[in-house]
C-alpha cells in the first residue's frame, strides 16, 4: 500500500493573534503539489520504519518521527484491530524544516495509509482529532486540497475554484526551525486575508496575492539572509510572484505554465547547484478539476 505526502504551500499567511497557551492564530491560503514524499506499508513480523531518498539523512527515525507517532496514536485510539505489525517505508523527497509541511504531510499520509492497512473506517472528526494532536498543520495535510486555514490551522474551509498552478520551489538547502521564526515575529495581531478573488489565475491570483503577504517572511529573512537570494533568483527568472512558504526557507514562484517553471529552475540550478530546486504543479480544487 502507498500514500502520497505532497508538499504544503502557504500562498499567503497572516498571523492574526496569539492564544494564551502560546499557539499563534493565523489565516492562510494553502495548496498542495504533485511533488512530495511517498509512504508505503506492508505486513511484517514487527513494526519498523525505514527511510530512503535524497533528504533521508535529515529525518529522525526514532519516536520523534511523526510517522512513528501517528502509528502509535492510531494503536492507542483503535486498540486490537491495529495489532498487525506494519513495516513502513518513507521515500523522503521534501527538504526538512523547510516551511512546506514535510513532517506534517508524512503524518497525514500515515493516518490515511494505516486506516487502509488495518481496515479502520473512523469518521472524519475522529481522524482530525488525532491529526491535530500530532501537529497544527496535520489536519490541513490530511485534507490535501486547496483550502483556507484559520485558528491555529485546524479550522479548514475548502477553496472551490482554484485551478492547477505551475510553481517553482527553491530552498537554499538550509533548515529554519519554525519556533525560531515565530519567536522573531515583531507583530502578532495583523490584518486578516483580503476577500478571495481568483479570476484569470495565475495572473489574477498573483494580483490577489500581492494584496496579501506572509507575515513570517520578514523574521525568516532576518534569521536566514540566504532567503533574499532565493527570492531574487525566482523573480529574476520571470515568476508572476515570488514568496516564502510557511516559516521558510522554501520559496515559491508562480509561472504561466510548467515549462516556464522548469526553465527557470534549470537556470537557477546552473548558478546555485547547492540549492534544492523543483518545478511542479499544484493540485486543483475538486470543482476546478470537474470543470476542466
Secondary structure topology:
Layout: E1 2-18, E2 24-43, E3 48-52, H1 66-78, E4 86-91, H2 102-117, H3 124-134, H4 138-143, E5 147-150, E6 155-158, E7 166-171, H5 178-183, H6 203-210, H7 217-223, H8 226-236, E8 241-244, E9 251-255, H9 258-271, E10 276-281, H10 286-291
Parallel strand pairs: 3-4
Antiparallel strand pairs: 1-2, 2-4, 2-5, 5-6, 7-9, 7-10, 8-9
Helix pairs in contact: 1-2
CATH class of the largest domain: Alpha Beta
Largest sheet: 6 strands, mixed
| Oligomeric description of these chains | single chain
Number of domains: 2
The helix tally amounts to 10
Architecture (CATH level 2) name of the largest domain = 2-Layer Sandwich
**Which structural class matches the secondary elements?**
alpha+beta
Helix content: 25-40%
Tell me the number of strands: 10
Beta content: 25-35%
Give start-end ranges of low-pLDDT stretches: none
Report how far apart the termini are: 29 Å
Give the overall form. Answer: globular
Mean pLDDT: 93
CATH topology (fold) name of the largest domain: Ribosomal Protein S5, domain 2
Radius of gyration, in Å, reads 19 Å
Describe the fold and architecture.
Helices cover about 35% and strands about 25% of the residues. It folds into two domains: about 1-155, Ribosomal Protein S5, domain 2; about 160-290, Alpha-Beta Plaits (2-Layer Sandwich), CATH 3.30.70.890. Strands 1, 2, 3, 4, 5 and 6 form a six-stranded mixed sheet that branches. With about 290 residues, the protein is α+β, with helices and mostly antiparallel strands. Strand 5 (about 145-150) and strand 6 form a beta hairpin. Helix 1 runs parallel beside helix 2 (about 100-115).
Amino acid at each position: 500500500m502507498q500514500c502520497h505526502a505532497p508538499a504544503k504551500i502557504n500562498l499567503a499567511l497572516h498571523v492574526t493573534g496569539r492564544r494564551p497557551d502560546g499557539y499563534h492564530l493565523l489565516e492562510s491560503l494553502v495548496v498542495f503539489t504533485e511533488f512530495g514524499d511517498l509512504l508505503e506499508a506492508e505486513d511484517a513480523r514487527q513494526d519498523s520504519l525505514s527511510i530512503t531518498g535524497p533528504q533521508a539523512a535529515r529525518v529522525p527515525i526514532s519516536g520523534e518521527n511523526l510517522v512513528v507517532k501517528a502509528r502509535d496514536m492510531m494503536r492507542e485510539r483503535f486498540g486490537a484491530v491495529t495489532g498487525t505489525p506494519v513495516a513502513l517505508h518513507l521515500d523522503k523527497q521534501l527538504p526538512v524544516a523547510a516551511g512546506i509541511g514535510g513532517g506534517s504531510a508524512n503524518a497525514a499520509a500515515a493516518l490515511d495509509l494505516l486506516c487502509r492497512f488495518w481496515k479502520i473506517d473512523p469518521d472524519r472528526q475522529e481522524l482530525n482529532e488525532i491529526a491535530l494532536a500530532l501537529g497544527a498543520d496535520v489536519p490541513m495535510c490530511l485534507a490535501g486540497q486547496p483550502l483556507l486555514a484559520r485558528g491555529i490551522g485546524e479550522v479548514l474551509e475548502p477553496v472551490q475554484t482554484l485551478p492547477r498552478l505551475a510553481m517553482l520551489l527553491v530552498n537554499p538547502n538550509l533548515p529554519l526551525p519554525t519556533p525560531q521564526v515565530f519567536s522573531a515575529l515583531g507583530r502578532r495581531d495583523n490584518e486578516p486575508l483580503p476577500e478571495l478573488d481568483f479570476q484569470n489565475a495565475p495572473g489574477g491570483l498573483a494580483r490577489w496575492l500581492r494584496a496579501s503577504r506572509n507575515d513570517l517572511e520578514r523574521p525568516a529573512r532576518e534569521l536566514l539572509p540566504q532567503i533574499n537570494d532565493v527570492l531574487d533568483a525566482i523573480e529574476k527568472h520571470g515568476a508572476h510572484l515570488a514568496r516564502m512558504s510557511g516559516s521558510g526557507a522554501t520559496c515559491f514562484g508562480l509561472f504561466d505554465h510548467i515549462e516556464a517553471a522548469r526553465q527557470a529552475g534549470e537556470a537557477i540550478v546552473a548558478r546555485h547547484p547547492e540549492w534544492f530546486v523543483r518545478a511542479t504543479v499544484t493540485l486543483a480544487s475538486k470543482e476546478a478539476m470537474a470543470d476542466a
